[in-house]
Structure formats: structure tokens, C-alpha cells
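Q: My labmate handed me this sequence with no annotations at all. I'd like to see what the chain might look like in three dimensions before we decide whether it's worth expressing. Could you predict it?
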Amino acid sequence: MRDEARKDPGQGPAPAIDLPERRRRAAGGMGWIHRRWVRAGLVLMGLIAAILLLPALLRVQPDQLSDNQWASPSWDHWLGTDANGRDLLARVCDGARVSLVVGLAGSLVSLVIGVSWGAVAGYVGGRWDGVMMRVVDVLYSMPSILFIIVLVTAVQGPVVGFLESVAGRRGAEAAPVLFLVVGLGGVSWLTMARIVRGQVLSLRQRPFMEATRALGAGHARLILRHLLPNTMGVILVYLTLTIPAIVLGESFLSFLGLGVQPPQASLGSLLADGASQINPVRTSWTALAGPGGALVTLLMVLGFLGDGLRDALDPRQRKSGHSEG
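A: Here is what I predict for the chain of 325 residues:
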């Protein structure tokens, strides 16, 4: 355009690109960071990380017992204490770590199962695809929470005994967390499998796949090197949306007493402890406000990150999202 403007003086100068457009082009693949939902999620995630590290900085142990039971908030105990004199802030931070670990580990379980199942079903197609997806439909018809409750009550005794014989007390304490990870991850992969199957079905007949087959690539190479990388955007988006669902499921089960057991704590078990103290004699509002606020904030942060990542990786959202920068 500039060369043509030099050759023909009658033409005006080449249109200049505005500064925001230059910034977006210079950002390239990192332009998703400038979206407001991602910015809000990253700021809140940094705030949560600072809060989780706060008890360690203050040198407060979550399991440290004392005679100062149900103390009001003070400089020594910012959220007060519980029935055993333990610092509520330290307990909330420890419970948030447990809930977040369960959410991340359960999401990884659902990721492995769902991606493998959906990729194989979509790539093979035909009768095997129909059989595999009917299995998904049958599992969809089962109530997931009821399935997890039956799983925990049926195998908890033998598994806890085995882990205790192998790893001692730590193994027995880790058994409920393991049940939650396996149970919640084992029922959360169904939608992932359907999404991956649909993506693979739309990609397997593309010209680049035909060319790769003509070059003699095997089935494993076609799936791992060509199909899955082209569906990674959708997989990552749904993965970020699966984590808060598993965190919420873990909190619900722990609230019912079927998840994390004392002396360990999660946000759900802390909410149950706080709810048990609502009576005409004594009501500790921090016992509910602390874990409840932490759970709401954690779910909101994960939701912001999921929405921002979805908008960044969806081509249809990129054009409409330029004005948000």
C-alpha cells in the first residue's frame, strides 16, 4: 500500500493501524490475558494463593488445639476459633487446599478417561462407536451422587484397611480423599467423552487426515499427533469448567459426612461444623461465613478463568471480544 502511494502522488497515505490494534497484533497468542474475565480470574487466583499461604506466614497450625473455644475474631485469630480451640482461618485455608486438590485431581481423572473414550469412539466409528456411546448413555442415566455414595460405603472398609496396613495412619487419612478423586472423576468424564467424540468425527475426514493416512501413519499417530492436538482448545475449556463442578461435589459430600473425615478438613466439612453450631445458645457467624465465603470465591475464580479461556479459544468469540480489551 505504501509503495503504491509513492508511485501515485494522487493517492492518500496508507491507512494507519490504530494503537489498540497494534497492541493486539503484538500480543499474538497471549492476547487472551487482556480479556477482562481472565484478568479478574487471575487477580482473584493470586488473592486466593496469598490467603492460602497466610497461615504459614503467621505460623498458625490448623490442628493446634487450645482451651480458647469459640473465640471471637481478634488479631490473634482473625476468624475466631472452633469447638476445639483451633484457628478458623488456618482451618479454612487448609480446607480450601484439600478441596482444590480434589478438584484438580478429579478433573485429571475425568480428562484421561473422557478424552481416551471419546477419541477412540470417534476415530473407530461404526458399530464400536455406537456401543461405546450407548455405554455413556447408560452411565448418564445413573444418579452420580448416589453412585459415589454407594461406592464409598461399599469399598471404604477394605480399602482403608489395606492403605493403613501399607502406609499406616497417613494412608488411612488419605483414603477419603482418594475415594472422592476416583468417584467424582469417574462420573465427570461423560460429557468430555461426547465433546471429544464430536470433534474427532468432524476432523477425521479432513484432507490433512487423508494425506497423513496416505503417508502411512498408524492409528496411534493419527490420534495422538493430529486429532487430539486439534481438539485441545475445546478440551482445555471444558477441563476448566469441570474443576468447579468437582469442587462443589466434594464440598457437598463432605457436608453430608461422606467425604473428608476429621481431623482433616475441607470446605464442606467446615460448613457442616458451622451449621451444627446454629442454636439458641450459641451462634458463631464466622464458622459459616469463613468456609462459605472461601467456597463461593473459589468457584467464582474458577468460573472466571473458564469463561475467559472459552472466549479466548473460541474463534467466534474473538471478533466480538476485541472491544473488551
